[in-house]
Amino acid sequence: MINKLYPRDQIRNYLLIDVISIVFFCYIVLRSGTIFGFWGNLFLLLVFLVSFYIGLWYKDWRLLAAVLLGLSIITLFGVLVSPSILLFGFIFADLIGRSKSKVHIMIGIMAIAAMFLIVYWKGTGNLFKQDYWILLPILILQLTFPILIYIKEKAKGLQGELDAANIQIEKYIQQEERQRIARDLHDTLGQTLTMIKLKSELTSRLINNDSTRAKQELEDILMMTRRALNQVREAVSEMKFISLESEIENSQKLMEAIGIELEIAKKELPLLPSVAQTMIALSIREAMTNIIKHSKASQCTLKFEIIDNMFNIQIIDNGIGLKRKEIGNGIQSMKERMSAVQGTAMIKGLSSGGTNVTLSLPIFQMERGNLAL
């Protein structure tokens, strides 16, 4: 019920102060004799309360109108009852500071100054009478109060926007982390599971004819299973650094195990940051996984070259080429990883059959050097 009478966001900071101020104001006015009498005073208090209520709920022109009306009533009682009534000008000085319009705030400040001037002038006819100097600090505070409230409300609004932005950033980070884990699982675990699948099929064919080799294949499957578990742990924690050297070595072992001839064109390589090496290594791993799973190739070439400050890696196979036009998760993953280091990934089918994957990375800001293979 109280939320309908008083704004929820102001209950904690303002409700008690407003209630105390209004109760004292009403008490002082009702016990004072004025030319309006008891019922006249009561009517003016009702107008005062309506003005206060409107000022609580609106921040547009209605707030300005309510503040001007409320200050007018305080001015009237300041003249008829006592200049000390001007203390209650803080009620509307606070409200006008919450206005969305700086113009309205300035008009409110001028109305507060006019309220004090009128009470001073009507009370003594002398604006410089020493008896009224005690109210001078009150005047200064009420003139500056709207500005302070405006700054406070502005800061609160900015904090709210910052909190909302932080929530959006947190959601974005969570989404990016999920995508990273998905890419890592696809790029690393997918290759291992593909090898387990192929070796399991081979073992099933060998188990009756060549039990010794079948046993060896089972041991390899066990080793790869342990490797898959480690890859899952790495993917859900943090992506580790993967060097080009280690990935090329793994690719050689992988292709040899599966029966695909891999030719590596060794040329001068640049010194790359660890992030760039990792992204290239994972892209090469994904390309090799695609060759194993889809290409039906018997031969593959891994070529490194530097042309016009561009580090290019080509993975070429002699398989069936791009039979499917849609972009799968693996291809999209390569594009995203290379894009993360300002590089590109291009995949195209060859007229003679097979596929050419080209990874390109600008190296004009990197120091040229040799990377041992």
From TrEMBL:
<keyword id="KW-0175">Coiled coil</keyword>
<keyword id="KW-0902">Two-component regulatory system</keyword>
<dbReference type="Pfam" id="PF07730">
    <property type="entry name" value="HisKA_3"/>
</dbReference>
<feature type="transmembrane region" description="Helical">
    <location>
        <begin position="64"/>
        <end position="91"/>
    </location>
</feature>
<feature type="transmembrane region" description="Helical">
    <location>
        <begin position="37"/>
        <end position="58"/>
    </location>
</feature>
<keyword id="KW-0808">Transferase</keyword>
<dbReference type="InterPro" id="IPR011712">
    <property type="entry name" value="Sig_transdc_His_kin_sub3_dim/P"/>
</dbReference>
<keyword id="KW-0812">Transmembrane</keyword>
<feature type="transmembrane region" description="Helical">
    <location>
        <begin position="103"/>
        <end position="121"/>
    </location>
</feature>
<dbReference type="InterPro" id="IPR036890">
    <property type="entry name" value="HATPase_C_sf"/>
</dbReference>
<feature type="domain" description="Signal transduction histidine kinase subgroup 3 dimerisation and phosphoacceptor">
    <location>
        <begin position="177"/>
        <end position="240"/>
    </location>
</feature>
<dbReference type="InterPro" id="IPR050482">
    <property type="entry name" value="Sensor_HK_TwoCompSys"/>
</dbReference>
<keyword id="KW-1133">Transmembrane helix</keyword>
<feature type="transmembrane region" description="Helical">
    <location>
        <begin position="12"/>
        <end position="30"/>
    </location>
</feature>
<keyword id="KW-0472">Membrane</keyword>
<protein>
    <recommendedName>
        <fullName>histidine kinase</fullName>
        <ecNumber>2.7.13.3</ecNumber>
    </recommendedName>
</protein>
<feature type="transmembrane region" description="Helical">
    <location>
        <begin position="133"/>
        <end position="151"/>
    </location>
</feature>
<feature type="coiled-coil region">
    <location>
        <begin position="215"/>
        <end position="268"/>
    </location>
</feature>
<dbReference type="GO" id="GO:0016020">
    <property type="term" value="C:membrane"/>
</dbReference>
<keyword id="KW-0418">Kinase</keyword>
<dbReference type="GO" id="GO:0000155">
    <property type="term" value="F:phosphorelay sensor kinase activity"/>
</dbReference>
<dbReference type="GO" id="GO:0046983">
    <property type="term" value="F:protein dimerization activity"/>
</dbReference>
